[in-house]
UniProtKB/TrEMBL annotation:
One of its GO terms (biological process) is phosphorelay signal transduction system. PROSITE patterns: RESPONSE_REGULATORY. It comes from the Bacteria. Residues 3-120 form the Response regulatory domain. Keywords: Phosphoprotein. This is Response regulator receiver domain-containing protein.
Amino acid sequence: MPEILIIDDEKEICTIFKMTLERAGYSVRAAQDGDEGIRLFKEKPADILIVDIIMPDKDGIETIVETRKNSPNVKIVAVSGGGRISSDEYLKMAKTLGANVTLEKPVTRDVLLSTVKELLD
């Protein structure tokens, strides 16, 4: 069963993504920030990381760079709703630094499921 790790400081997003993916048959874990996500990934690697860009402590960009350096084959989905700059700018940066796919929040159920399926195929 494919393993997915969600890293997002918004608990509601983690809960919605986790429930959606579990109902589709995936094994899913969640972390509230980049540090926790990196720790969970080291304990048990995932097939796909879904990483929010704007988070306290270790943000998504740092998380993507560190993960990509240590695990070049993991699939990474970067998500952002924006912040000081538009979500588009954050997502371009994430793509340049190693994200396989970028999604702008809010992410619909269908987009989330199709993105995960495509990355696993």
